Amino acid sequence: xxxxxxxxxxxxxxxxxxxxxxxxxxxxxxxxxxxxxxxxxxxxxxxxxxxxxxxxxxxxxxxxxxxxxxxxxxxxxxxxxxxxxxxxxxxxxxxxxxxxxxxxxxxxxxxxxxxxxxxxxxxxxxxxxxxxxxxxxxxxxxxxxxxxxxxxxxxxxxxxxxxxxxxxxxxxxxxxxxxxxxxxxxxxxxxxxxxxxxxxxxxxxxxxxxxxxxxxxxxxxxxxxxxxx
Amino acid sequence: xxxxxxxxxxxxxxxxxxxxxxxxxxxxxxxxxxxxxxxxxxxxxxxxxxxxxxxxxxxxxxxxxxxxxxxxxxxxxxxxxxxxxxxxxxxxxxxxxxxxxxxxxxxxxxxxxxxxxxxxxxxxxxxxxxxxxxxxxxxxxxxxxxxxxxxxxxxxxxxxxxxxxxxxxxxxxxxxxxxxxxxxxxxxxxxxxxxxxxxxxxxxxxxxxxxxxxx
Lengths: 229, 215
Hints:
The complex is a heterodimer of chains A (229) and B (215). Chain A has 229 residues and is an alpha+beta fold. Chain A folds into two domains: 5-49 and 142-217, no CATH class; 52-140. Chain A has helices spanning 5-13, 26-47, 49-52, 159-174, 193-217; strands at residues 54-59, 70-71, 75-85, 93-94, 97-98, 112-115, 118-121, 131-140. In chain A, helix 2 packs across helix 4 (159-174), helix 2 packs parallel to helix 5 and helix 4 packs antiparallel against helix 5 (193-217). With 215 residues, chain B is of the alpha+beta class. Chain B has two domains: 2-42 and 146-195, no CATH class; 47-130, no CATH class. Chain B has helices spanning 2-5, 20-41, 153-166, 172-196, and strands at residues 47-54, 63-65, 73-81, 84-88, 101-105, 108-111, 123-130. A seven-stranded mixed beta sheet of chain B has the order 1-7-3-4-5-6-2, with helices on one face. The longest helix of chain B has 25 residues, at 172-196. In chain B, 29% of the residues are buried. The chains are: A alpha+beta (229), B alpha+beta (215).
């Protein structure tokens, strides 16, 4: 089952009778949930990028587009790049990813670097002979939530972490707010923010720990460790 | 008015009530007040369910004029656009909610940006608490009030109160007593409306109950 932002928002509202829509409208909830999702996805990807990675390919043209910006999909991080050869042989090789400051060291060699969200190829045209395409493994940047029907990018097992952290932002939002919105001097709402914080931290830790556990259990059959996380 | 006159033998002076347009205008104001108080407290007085309103024909910032709605709109409960709820937002804080959104200025409902979808006329379905039907002060006394019969004595008590105040020299205690009776009956009406739905299940505490009434 894939959850929607509406599912997450409703579950977070369930955490307190003070989290009604009249106190926390959908706009702030969506923006907070978007930021939390990005944060959790980044933390998850840092632990197991393969689990969240998508691929895109860049076809090598004739002449090869050395030094020309290759636009990538919006992403949180580029995990790795593979070089694919004509006829599928030799097997794809891991492409060196270098910092832009070292591009002159690769004037005569194949490598790629990232600059301002785009991918650049180094070397000379001859260095890319027999190369058909680059396969880029990247963790996509999730879209901000704009409707309750928007799907959550995080996997289902992250729902508790997402809900708990969203509930924490709700608690911070309403804590101290006047109980009666039309009477600012009325008794302020008092929410135990510390408990929400503890629950959010616990849920996030549990999810990230499960990712780490899965990584540790992963088996690799490739000697060059290309597919190791 | 006949019922109101029954509250005091001193109301029999014809010049107290002979101006029918005055009496009709007062009854109309009292009735509006009752609907206003009830609408702030509960949605259960008279609700117009799922009335359809067409917007202006445009690509963005379309408007829906609610001023000509029959019956009139006292309090909007919810707005639906093709099965999706439209969020009412404040003009100065349209980012408070997710699209589709609308804000209300006067009696005009206005689309935020192009939230309502493709250009053209859009049909909004609105559930709302109604205003009472307008009573025409230039017409006669046989006009029908909107307030359900079980609560109609509220208008009679209010009118009797008005006549007592109007009658110079009358014992002020009488007006006070009528006001007390009115407040008691008004509370009784609100209680009746409130408990009609039984014990409603709600996840949230209502932020406030808006005090109503214009008198």
